[in-house]
What does this fold into?
Amino acid sequence: MLNEALKDAAAVMTRLLERHSAAFSLVETGSVRHVGHGVAWVDGLPNVQALELLEFAGGQFGMAFDLDTDQVGVVLLDTSQDIAAGSKIRRTGRVADVPVGNALLGRIVNALGQPLDEQGTLQTRQRLAIEREAPAILERAPVNQPLQTGIKVIDATIPIGRGQRQLIVGDRQTGKTALALATILNQRQHGVICIYCAIGQRGDAVARVIDTLRAQGAIEQTILVVAGADEPPGLQYITPYAATSMAEYFMEQGRDVLIVYDDLSHHALAYRELSLLLRRPPGREAYPGDIFYIHSRLLERSTRLARGGSLTALPIVEIEAENLAAYIATNLISITDGQIYLSPELFHKGLLPAVDVGKSVSRVGGKAQLPAYRLVAGALKLYYAQFEELEMFARFGTRLDARTRALLERGRRVREILKQHEHTALSPFEQIVVLLAVTEGLFDDLPPVRIPEAEQRLCSLVVRQFGDIGRRIYEGESLNAEDRMAILQACKQVSTGEVTDGNRANT
Ligand SMILES: Nc1ncnc2c1ncn2[C@@H]1O[C@H](COP(=O)(O)OP(=O)(O)OP(=O)(O)O)[C@@H](O)[C@H]1O
It folds into this structure.
């Protein structure tokens, strides 16, 4: 009896001692040896873990990055203003993590999950580490469901599937953000949750995105994770990882999620700055040796899960002077499943969105395209490729035969129909009908300037008359001969002016 009681007492004592020693290690403190822009070197903290969150005496946060034998390199996640040599710093015992959950929808937060909007504190119960392992191969499913962008040139020629990683690449001011934003806006009716992650962007650019999301009623299903250009490089560096953890929460609940990283060039610059400040050896273009790894580790987390749920990533990268072979851009091109290249030349010609179809590719999206779309898209790509080649020859003033002239004329109309204003998304059915009309030559007699008007009339007509075909197409049916005939007939009526605004004209 006494033995039993002694054993119990010993067990209680052991538990108390364990708890006490754990608590003791949590309050391990150190002091700042010296502090620079974005980083600090700290003495003490012998048991600190890599990526552990550390708290300075003034309440600022940092993250243990370089663990040397005699000091710790800490990346600052707040401004360094009130941190000086001698400042105290303590371990928190947890790696950097963020709140996750439905409460984040419609909110603007930073990489630590702190609200940046005026809607008060976040009511979330769960947190996830910002650095998480990507799903294993066996947990993944093939990408075979479309993610509709509503943009004709993308959905037709460079389709994106749910779970795909598609790079948006281009010089500055070529419409990269506009393209990603249009994709987010188009998810309103498809129930896809969106995360817009701004890294190193100017405040006015982010404000424009927020305003557009609000004005178009898409903010409620979007989370904005923002680290502006004036934030410490450490905070900019962890922002995409934090945003991905917030996205993974929804993916693991079986939801489809879209994440936009705007942009990874600024992310790479922030990491280079941190690495140079921490005196890590510089490599090509002064980037550290693991620059490829930081991006592949991030994008590996986007996938489609076999048990349901997907995370589609649209990373954006900015290049200079159309140099697609730039270091960070080529790294990202090799990591992702395709790229959308935005050309400054097309942008300046007013061919918006300025997607250069020849330099863009989607390595998996074709399998995800709706079956009805595949037939139309094939013909469209062929016309466009032939047209671009012929247009080059035509510039030399070569005399052209009638067939070539006809191909050129059709190509001009195809190009006209692929123009699209930034906030005018088309449903898959509308896109199929419009593209069918142009590839079948039903707009050949219309002057190109009248094509946008004909397109509008056609869209309102088919939605009104053929809603049922649209529904079937969306459910995965191909376009049968009868439906195709009916649609072509309607197209013919619109192009000849027989039908206006979806109604038969008074003839
Ligand atoms: N399809 C479009 N229709 C009309 N305007 C467009 C279209 N696409 C982009 N724009 C306009 O072009 C301008 C540049 O677009 P955006 O800011 O998206 O480019 P960016 O490449 O992201 O720029 P930055 O390099 O500064 O990040 C914006 O004013 C935008 O409204």
